Every structure is written in C-alpha cells, then in structure tokens.
Amino acid sequence: MSTRTYFKTVNINSTGPNTSDTSILLIYTGGTIGMDRHPETGSLIPFDFEKIIDAVPELRAFDFELTVISLDPLIDSSDVTSQHWVQLGTIIEEFYEDFDGFVILHGTDTMAYTASALSFMLDGVHKPIILTGSQLPIGEKRTDARENLMSALEIASERHESGEMLVQEVCICFNSKLLRGNRSKKSQNFNFTAFRSYNYPSLAEAGIFIEYKRDMFWKDPINGPVRSMKEINANVMLLKIFPGMHKEMIAHMLKQPQLQGVILESYGSGNIPSSGWFIELIEEIVKKGVIVVNISQCTGGTVMQGHYATSAKLNKIGVLSGKDMTTEAALTKLMCLLTKYKDSERVKELIGIPLKGELTL
C-alpha cells in the first residue's frame, strides 16, 4: 500500500473469528463524528482518530480487515471544495485494488455534494463507497456515530452470493438507512434523520437484520480499471429563482466571463417569472454557449418543462430539463461533464441521461 503524506494510517486488529478475506478502508476526512468535548471548556475539538478503537471497541468484533486513514489536515465540511473531491477520488483509485470496500467519514453539511461528485468522478466502480458521519460527536453519550459507522462498515463488507461485493455504488448510510449518494439531500440539522432521498427509495434499512432492496441497486456498466477525474471544472453557478429579483444583480452574475454552466432552481415543476428581462438574460447566455439546467426547488417531484406557459419559454431558448435530479447531483454532474467533454452538444445530451442512477427517465 502506498504511503502518502496527506494521511495517517491506523490498523485495527480484529478479535473476531477472521473467517472473511474482506478488507475495508475507512477514510476519516473530518466532521462532527470526529469531534470530542474539551473537558474544561466544553467546546468541540478534533478527536484523535488514532484512538478510534477506544471510542468504538466494537470495531474489533468484525471478521474483516479494517484499515483507517485520516486525512492530514482534516476538512471542515463547510470548507469542502472540488479539490477535496479530487483528493478523495484519487485515494479511492490508488487503493481500489487493495480493498474490497470504502467507508468515508465526512461532515454532514456537504456530504450529499461529495457523494454526488464522487459518483460522477469515478468510472468502473464495482465496490461499495459509503459515506457516513453523525449529528453528535463520537465522544457524546447519546451519539449516533457508533450506529452509523457500524452499519456503514457492515454494509460495505457484504458480498453477493456470486462473491462480488453486494453494493457497487456511492451511497450515504445514516440513521439505519442506505441511500444512493446522488439522490440524497441533507434534510435535518436537529435530529438523527439527517438525510433523505425524496425521489428514489432507500437501498437498505438496518433493523434487527439489514434488509437490502437489491432491485434498487445501481451497477456501473463501465468495466475495466477504476479511474477518477484529476480535475473539476467549477465554472458553474447555482441560481435560485425568488420573488422580486433585480435585473441588474442577476445580469451581473450571469455575465461573468468564466461562466460555463448554470443550475437554475425554479418554482414547482420548472416554472420561472414571466418577466421579459429574465428570459432575455437566460437566452443571451445560452447563445454564448453557457449550459443552463432547470431543476425544481421542491425536494420531491420532477421538472416538467412546458407543462405551464412560463416554463415552455425555457424549452424554446435551449434550457435543459434536469428532471428529478437534486441540486447536489445536478451541480456536480454538470461540473464533471464540462470537465470530461469540450463538445457542449455532448454535455447537453448527457445531462438528461442517467449516468449513475441520478435521475428518472
């Protein structure tokens, strides 16, 4: 296994029966799960993940080999950038042949963005890549960290009857549910059900037994060696429609010379204000080659461009329907497509096609 300077490695020696030849790589990036309370001030401080076995001794009960790496420096999830996605993708690519599954501990604020990005960045994945975290630090008495971590690791180690890994996609495991990563959204910051998948069923539910919905799983049609993107085109912006928008402010944002893509968060089923100036601004940037994708502000449902007159105008000027994609999926998908393809027509074609199970046709 390669030794990189950006992480520290901890090996967990199992006390289980060691009947499995499975090996899992646990990647700690930062986030609430890795925090602890300062004994004097009560403030949250980073947990020394080299002592994870002291906090979660149950890790020794697994019958598979578990290796923990901790990024150095750690990432506050609110500081996540596309470069961090590249870093994570590179780690998975580098160690893909050494491990049977990957679990990433990540802060909850941008977990859905990272899960979505990794799903599009990585091609040829046929092993589980599961992100998890917690709402309370691992050192708290009532923490959800242990349950989330243990469930994620157990799911990541499951094999199909054929011997293949059971889950073969990027997922989020949180509060006993396994969700497709690029279908997930953070929905709560004050209870343990932090993530939901509004437009696609959960992939598994962990109760007394873990019940898998195998017919819901995604399997990448791409075979061959795993490859991760080494750069991300982040010249994309998110524009949320709201009542009372000012033309000058919107125009200033849309006329930035480096702009290559816009995710338009519209009302309901894809509707926008009927004001002439807004349509004119969007049409102007589309003519310049900027790709505009229309998604709904609603957490559930899909864009039906043309269903109402106010959205029919978007069809006419070349705005693309994002169907039922989440904001996180639409944004990261567009970034990745703009990186992979210089031909804008190819990007437009692929936006409306499910590449990693991110949308419903």
TrEMBL record:
Statement: the UniProt record of this protein carries the keyword Lipoprotein: no
Stored SMART domains: Asparaginase
One Gene Ontology term from the biological process aspect of the record: aspartate family amino acid metabolic process
Single GO MF descriptor: asparaginase activity
Family note: Belongs to the asparaginase 1 family.
InterPro entries linked to this entry: AsnA_fam (IPR006033), Asp/glu_Ase-like_sf (IPR036152), Asparaginase/glutaminase-like (IPR006034), Asparaginase/glutaminase_AS1 (IPR020827), Asparaginase/glutaminase_AS2 (IPR027475), Asparaginase_C (IPR040919), L-asparaginase_C (IPR027473), L-asparaginase_I (IPR041725)
Name of this protein: asparaginase
UniProtKB keywords: Hydrolase
Active site, UniProt feature: T32, T108
Domain Asparaginase/glutaminase C-terminal: 235-350
Species assigned in the record: Flammeovirga agarivorans
Enzyme Commission number: 3.5.1.1
Domain L-asparaginase N-terminal: 24-214
